Each structure stands twice: as C-alpha cells, then as structure tokens.
Batch of 3 targets.
Target 1
Amino acid sequence: MNEKISKEILADVLGTSKRVVNGWAKSGRIQTSIDGKNGHEYVNKESIQNFKELDFLFDNSWDKFSTITPKKEYKIIELFAGCGGLALGLENAGFKSLLTNEIDNDASKTLKLNRPNWNVVNDDISNVSFKKYLDKVDMISGGFPCQAFSYAGNKFGFDDTRGTLFYEFARAVKEVNPKIFVAENVRGLLTHDNGRTLQTIKSVISELGYDLVSEEVLKAIFYKVPQKRERLILVAVRKDLSPYVRYTKPPKNNKIFTLSDALKSGVLYNQDCPNSDGQVYPNRKKEIMSLIPQGGYWKDLPDELQREYMKGSYHLGGGKTGVARRLSWSQPSLTLTCAPAQKQTERCHPEETRPLSVREYARIQTFPDSWEFAGSKTSQYKQIGNAVPVNFAYSIGLSLIKLLNDIENSDMKTVLPDVQSSSQLSFKL
C-alpha cells in the first residue's frame, strides 16, 4: 500500500469529506503524523486497518489479477473511440481491434497516427454497417453520449431510442451479435432525465437478448490512475451465455497514485514529464494565480483579490472549489475537463503558475509518452479530457478477458430452451 496516505486521499477513498476525517483525527479514531521533509500531515496506516472499506490497501489481489491473459484472440469493435484511451487500454489487456469508429476528424487522425494497423472508420456511426461482422466479434465497446429518449407510447424499448447515439450502439450490437459488450458513460447517466434514460437502456439491453451483469460507478483512483475520475460501467452478456459465467469487476490496486506519480519519474513513468505546448494565463490572472498555494483555491486569496477575481459570484453561495484551483503534488488530480483554464474548473500546475500542458494532461489520463495527438492545441486538450484513462480501461479489460475466458471454459452443450440468440430477434430498423 501507500507508505503514506493523506487525509484528502483517505476522504476520497472512503467517499467522505476532509472535515469528517479531521474529526476522526481530533477524536483519536485515526492517528496522524507530520512528514519532516515536506511538512505535510499523513494518516498512520496502522490506525486505518480496522476500516473494512480499506482492506484493499493491505492486500495484493491486483498482482494476481494482472497476470490474466486471453485463452484465444478476442476480437472487438469499438464505437465512439475518441483519441483511443479505452481502445489502447483494451489492447493492453489483450484484445484485438477489428474496427474502430470515431466521427471527429482530429481524434480519428490521432488513432491512425498511433495505430496505422487499426481499421479506423472516420464517419458518422449512422452511416456505418456492421453486418459483415455478424458472429465474428467477441465484444463491442464504447461510450455513447447520453441523450434524452422519446417516450411516446411508453414502450421504453429499442424504437424509443431512435435519433440517439445509444440507438446506433444498440444497432451495432444487434447486427454483430457479440458474446459481450461494455459501455462506459458519465455518472450522470444514473439520474439523466430522472432516471428514465437508464431504464430505457436496460430495457433495450434485455430486448437485444443480453443480461446486464454489471452496472456500477467505478473510481479511476483505484486502478492506477492519478485522477479523481468516475465512470459508469455497463457490462452485458448474451443470454445464451450468461447462465454459465459470472462477471467480477477488477480488484482495487493497493496504491493510490498522485499528481507527483503522473508527472515525475517513478512507478507510472520512468522519466519526468516531457515539455509540451500548453495554454498560458493573461498577465493579471497570472499575478493573482501566483498567490494561490499548492492545493488551494480562490478562498486562499486576500479578500480584495477574491472580490476582484470572483466579481458577482463572490456573494453567491457554494464553495466553488474549482475556481482559481492549484493542484497538489501529494493528491490525485481533479477530474480533467476539455480545457485546463476554465474558470469553474481550473487546473493550475502545482508549482509553476500556468495551466497544465497537453502532455501533462495525457499523463494524468495515463497515456504513454509515445502516444501523439493530432489537431490544434485546443483540440488536443478536448480529446484528452474526454478520454477514458488508459490504465482504467486496462483494468476493466482484464475483467472482460477473464469473463470471455470463462465463456470459453464453460460447458455450454445445452442452451436454455426459452433463450434465443440476439441474431434471431427481430427489430424494425
């Protein structure tokens, strides 16, 4: 486990606030000590061994899990691929890409630049037919944007999703009939349109002939990603296969990685982060941001500068902790957005008074330094900010490899009589 764990990390891991953790320290429930080298306060690991939620910090389940390898070549199609975070992570886990679809020109160029051997289809997914891949693909993956569906007639089925990108994802599943599929999305999908969007998705998954075997929000910090990012992961298995196997999510790694791990030489990277292009602050903003301490935000400014920087927002409620935010070496990065210098979601370098650079962005998303990004600086930030962290995707990929291995190992001579293959189901497209 981490030799040291900060109060902030402990709060993130337990899903509570630093104020609660401070209360535990004050009451003696946990013990802390000050690092003589940097003056930071850390929680003594001996005092958190009784927290059941922290058991993963003291075991090495990850080491055995990371040895999983595919029993055969598992073929995948990826949709809405972006700049390749999910695709690369799945490749690292052992999957072979047959087709990768992305509509954005710059993101497609990024994919082709780094993987010229991939079959990258740069087109609107609605123009792409997948029928030639029927029964030739083990898995479909991708993250579709969540859009509100039509509820005319209250059917809550496949036809209700027409005109949305989930419809295209479902159409690909219907045309290909893979053994499994995985879809990732933002946490907000759970409550999107008062929960009706997810309910329709679940209904369609069943209608397609699949069982949803996992529906869970996972935190990237548990999977060798130095970033406080969360994603909803949906895993579905074809109904003729699901009775014979059980999906298990990846175990948590016993180390929580920080911004220092991302940008400095260490376990994640064997050298300090290379220099690269990045945004710059206007002069006055730079003057003000230079006064923000590491890990601090606008509340750490003198009152007159708070008023100048916040303007009318100064008197509004809420902490607005992302405003004028400087990151900390000793903490995982806040979730990256499509730009590092947006007022509500500032991502300032912990020491230098500047926004994070493109390559720093990529490192926090655990892309290798060899992964190049096409397009303008603005486009590169957007591609990276929208990506699935590579190590996160790799971890999920290993669980999916294990699932497919279990399918291969299962004795499925007898198929349940009331279950049909999704390729036999009929839909009006």
Note: DSSP finds 13 helices and 14 strands in the chain.
Target 2
Amino acid sequence: MKQSMTIPARLLLLANFFFSIAAWAHDDASHGIHFKHSVPTAKKPWTNKPFLNNPNNFQFALVSDRTGGVRAGVFPKAVKRLNELRPEFVVSVGDLIKGGAKQINERVLREQWKEFNSFIEGFDMPFFYLPGNHDVGNEVADQIWDDLYGVRYYSFTYKEVLFLCLNTQDGPGTKPPLLGDKQVQWAIGELKKHQKARWTLVFIHQPLWLMEEGIEIRREGKKILRRSNTGWPKIEKALGDRKYTVFAGHVHHYGKYMRNQRAYYTLGTTGGGSRLRGTALGEFDHVTWVTMTDQGPRMANLLVDGILPDDIATESHQVFWRSLLFEEYFEKGTSLNGKTLTLPLRNSFEFEIKGKLSWKLAPNSNWAIKPEASEVVLQPEQEKTLRFTILRTKPNKKFSKAPLPKLGLRFKDEGKKLDLDMLLEIPLAR
C-alpha cells in the first residue's frame, strides 16, 4: 500500500503550485497570454518589454506608380516580395497601366489591364485599386474602369480605421486634376458617417495639396508657379481636427510633408519612370509598409536591399534639389563660348550642409568650365550664388555634337541626414 503524503508535503506542493501560477501571471501581464516558457528562476534571459501583438494593430502595404515609363519586371518583383512579408492587404495610389488620356483604343487598353491583373493575381492578399491619370481620363478608359471595378472612388473600414480612396481625375483628361462636386460631397458624407473612426487614411493619385499651393516648373527657360483649383480644400476642411494621414503618387518622388500638423506623403515608384538618383532625391523603387496603431500609422519604406525610414526624403530635400536650376536657358545652336551659368543655392535644412561641385568632362573634350570646382558651406536658410563660365578650347561658334560638361554635386552632412549626389546638365532647348 502506498504511503499517503504528509500534511507538510502537501502544503509545500500547494505553495509551489501557487507560486508557479503567480509566476505565469507575471509573465502574462508583461508578455501576453500566449507566451509560455520553461525558466523557473526570477531572472529571465530576455527583456521585459511586451510583445507587439495588439489585436487592434494591423499591417498593410502601399504600392506606387507602375507607369509613366514602365520598367519591366519591377512591379512583379514587388508582388513576390510582399507575399513574403505577408501584409494583410495592399493599396495602390494609381497609374497602374500605360493608358493615358490620348489612348482610346479599347483593345489596347483591355490588353494592358489584362497584363496588369495577371500581376495582381499573384498576390496572396486583397489588392485595392485606385485610378491615376494613366488609368482613366477619356470616355473609353473611364468605361473600361467602370466595367472592371464598378466605381472610381470608394471607402472602407478595417479595425475601426477609415480608408478614403478618391479619384483625382474627375475632370476630362489628365490636367488639371480635379475632385468633382459630386465626389467631394460624397467624401464629406463618408467622413460624417465615420466620425468615431480611430484614424482616417486618405489615398489620392495626384498630390492635390501641392497643386493648390502651386508647383514651380520651368517652361521655355522661365520659372513659373503653376496652381490648380482641385477641390481638395473642401476635403481638408471636412477632415478638420480628426486624426488622419494622406498618401499620393504621381510625381515619382518620395517626400514627407507636414500640413495642419498631419503627415502628407508623396510616394516614389514601383516600376514607373524614374531616374533613380537615390534616396535624397526621393527617387527609388519601393513599397511602403504601414503598421496601423492607435497612435497612428508607423511607416517604413522597403527596397529590395533594405528598409528605409519614412523621413528619408523630407520636404526640405525636395525644396533643396528642386531649387538647383541654372538661371540661364540656351537655344540649340547658340554659341556657348564665353557664356555664364548662374546657379542659386539655398539651404532649406535646419542644419549646416557641406558640399562640393565639380564639372565632369568627356575624354578629349573641347570644353572648359571656370571655375572647375567649388567647395560650398551653407548655414541653415543661407543662400549663395555661384557663377561659371563656359569656354571652348578650340574655336567653334556653335556647340558641337560632342558631349557638354555636366555639373556634379555632392552634399553630405556629418549626421547623415543629407546624402545627395546628382548631375546638372547645361539647359538647352530640346
């Protein structure tokens, strides 16, 4: 007959049992109810941070412009990479097919959509379409979109987050961008319906806030400010004080902007036309990974070879490099010998930047530039103007077919907040 357990032994067993429960309760509180372990000691071989497994958080991905100069293979590769990362769904910001406002051949357009949708079939998760100026913009293209996808703007909610997907091509053609009155009133109604949304995410193809403010462009050698009345201010007013974030494509340059103490993003490309001059210029192929939290979206830009933070190219980057335009403009056939190039520089950053500018000449070039190089130091908001003289080493009244010099710029600050490397060409009429 087995000897029964003594009372002290039973008490000891019960004490160990309750101690174990208490230990598990501590682990549950700090790491979550799904975490179990075999470590009996008070000290643990891991940190006490909680697991990031809030059931209200979720992850989705953004893809940007595929067209406006398709580079084959990039978008299909992005599909495969995203399948490996397992977002819950994928959202586009438009320009999915070559299309265009002048493309009215129905057969061609339907073939382009067939090709694009063959890529989308490769996704393991839902994909949300958004029209860009290459996707709609004439009666034929608009009708095909309606046949395939039903509506050109819509909304949905996911885990109490409102997704507002708008169509910036409400007007005929691609220019100017427009949110029509009917769409604006619908969007305002959707915002009113979902006033208690914990966050609102707005998706548009063209960055309407920039077009309302005006974008500096060069036309026939002159800098002009092009503004458009887009209907966006009405949407912005309706958004009011709610928590929201805006995403756009179209410009093929990544940039983070702050408006109304809210983050507005223009995305780079996912296979669309780009000179791919690097992160400082916001020119890179990427997908944007978004983790939705109660504090707002946490973002990272994913390249094939790495992960980039969301402020890799800020509005200050955009202002800086876009300001790097020669003041002069030469017609083809002009004698450039003795001509002067003037380059304005302005530091739009909050920190000192240092750089070097040097002219790059082709082998056996008949050109010379004075000065050949310049070292530049700019304090925050400081402006400088550099002047260069173009010279021929051999007599020639007109510029020859030989390659013209290009100005190479290299700026880098010690904190690695700025890392810019680019080339400027002598501005000639095409």
Note: The first helix runs from residue 7 to 31.
Target 3
Amino acid sequence: MKKGLLGLGAATLATLLLVGCSNGESKDSGKETITFINHRTDWETNGKWDEYIKQFNEKNPDIKIEVQTITDYAGQVKTRMNSDDYGDILMIPSDIKPQDYKNFFEPLGKKDELSKKYLGMNDRSYEGISYGIPSQINATGLVVNMKVFKDAGVKEFPKTPEDFVKALKKVKEHNSEVTPLYTNYASGWTLTNWDFVKAGASGDADFTNKLTTDKAPFEDGKVMNTIYNTLYTVSKEKLIEADPTTSDWEQSKVDLANGKIGVMVLGSWAIPQVQQANPDNAKDIQFMAFPMTAPDGKQYMTVAGDYNYGINKHSKHKEAARKFLDWLVNDSDYAKDNGGLPTVKGADYPASLKASQKAGVQLLEENPAPAGKESLFGDINDESQLGIGSTDKEKQRIIDAAIGNSKESFDDIMKDFNKRWSEAIEKVSQK
C-alpha cells in the first residue's frame, strides 16, 4: 500500500501538526531528543505526562522527551504518516493493516519471544514479528453505577439480555430522572465497544476468526444478532438518553459518577475517568461483563491490547525511543492509572476488575488469525463497510431505527448486514 492511501485528514491539519519531531539533539540541553505522539490530551493538560517523564529521566537523564498530544488522534496521526515525520514513538492507529506495519514501524522483536513476557501481542504482529507492544490490556464490558441498580432493587447484575432489559426498566421506574443506559451516540467511537464484546459474549477465543467464514453471522440467535438486538431493544424501550444525537461524552462520565446514568458499554480504561469525576462515589463505579452467558454457562470478558506503542521506522533515535517504550511498558504505572491490566504477564488485577473477578467472570484473549490470514477479517470488514469494531455508522443506524428516526426494522438491518458480509467474503476470496 502506498503511503498516500493513509491520508484521512486535511492537508492543513498535517501542516499545523508538523512541529518538533525527530530533528536531532536539543541545542539547549545537549540531550538526545525524541518526540512522543499520543492521544492523551488530558494528561498534557493536567501534568501527568510531566510526572512520567520526570520519573523516566531519573534513570535516563540523557534523553529529553517532547510530548505531542492530538485530539482526533487516529485521523490526524495517519495524515502525518504520509510523510516520515510522525514522531519517534507513537500510539499505532488501530486500522493500519498488518501487512503494512513494516512500512511504518520498527520491528520490536519476534512475537514468540515477546509473548513470553507480555500479553496482547497478537494485534500488532505480522509474520512472526511484533511492531507494537500494548500500553495496557483492556477488558470490554459495562461501566456500571451499582448504586443506581441497587436503589432500584437490582441486587445482582444481570447475566442475560432479557434480565438486563428488565433491570434497566426497574431503574427507569424507580427514578425517571436517571438514564438507564447511555449510548453516547453523538460521540460515535464509543459505539464500537458493542462490537468489542463479541468474543467474550460467545466465550469463543476463535470467534473473530470464525466470522471470516460465516456468511450469515447476523442471523437470529447468533451472537452478533443478540448483541445488536440488545442495543436495538434498549433504544426502542426508551431506556437510553432522550435525544441520543445530542449526547455528550465528557458530561456522560460526570453523570454516571453522580448516579444520573446507570450503565455505559465501554472498556475498563474508562473506570478511572468516571471515578475521578466524583471521587466521593468512586466505590459505586464497577466494571461488569456484557449480559450474555456462554454455552458453557460461564461469563467472559474480552481482553485485548489498548493502543500499542510503536517506533517510527524513519526515526533517527530508535535506541532512545526503545528505552522510553520499554520504560512505559515495564516500569510506568500507565496501565494502573488507566484502569487496565498491565501488559507484563502475572501482574495483579486492577481494582476496576475486582467486582467482575468476584462474580466469576473469566478473561478471554482472542486467538490470533492463522498464518497467512492475518488481514482476512479486516479485508472482509472493509469490503462490507460494516465497520465492526472500527466505525460507529451502523450502530447509529440500529439506534435510529429503534427510536423512529428511520423506517427500517431490526430484521431488515440484519438481513442487509448478512448480505453485505456474505458478498464481502466472496469478493475477498476472489482477490
């Protein structure tokens, strides 16, 4: 793939962002300077990155870290990747195709070797080589204000979609001022979490791999249908925000912390953000599995790597960048501070997952794609334009149908999904 295909943002954005990258040593300090590009704008504002860099420099005084944070991270950093100038170390955008890793990122080692020490090494590896290491491991499920549910008489969190809907209705009946489930429709990206629960909901570590051969994965009774039907049902039953098209991500965290929202489908990384919105209510905020039970009678939560740290293939400071990358993964509290599991194997569960651990929920890491098929799911997904795990459009479509903003039925949408997925499998197989 030519680099030009990565250009998603406007040229003006790229121009504005091309500052302070990989240009040799700092004349002021004499230190080797590397640029770290990431999405945590809040950490640049609140000084958290400054704290981290200070800790790093205690052991590495000869390396200066320049931090650049980007709000629309995925789109804007990919614009920068049309040139060689995208920092020294960065968070790898999630939709870079595996076969293209080598075009943009420095190899970090053999996957088999790195997997002995780290979790989540499947995502950014190709042909046995790893190009990224996860910043943390996230579980995907539900961020819940348990006080809201207990006040409504729900003592144990539901384990089936039917019981989940009943519980949300109880919340609404108990207090009409509370939004039982907040979709964050307008933010968009949050809706992809409804896709990320799929493997955990099935209890099958090969679920995503099996989707590449299933020409009707959205049929009634199948996992994807059940997940999307849950979204449709809670929307149709008016158990979501009154006007989801005007939802507010930042405000939703505050409202969840304050008991104005019951639950949101998100990753475990969101727990600290919600708790920080009202520390007095932190104990009320817990993380639960998506309300589906696998055929073996157990509940599972999918765990996978968050953004992976990668090193710019064109960096002139690869050794220094690798030192900082290794420190972030092995020594920093990044995962702990973000409610995730540490990438290093054998680490303790974070506090955010203690409730689900107590409830017997099992963590499930998906198996990698078979050799030679690493990009197959992504290729089919792109061809179908369903955006499973990557875009919000089709999840918004489901909500729109449920609340009457379109004349489509849920069955019509699922038939369309099956048709597009089946056709995509056929087209990709012929390439």
Note: The chain has two domains: 3-136+306-343, 138-305+354-431.
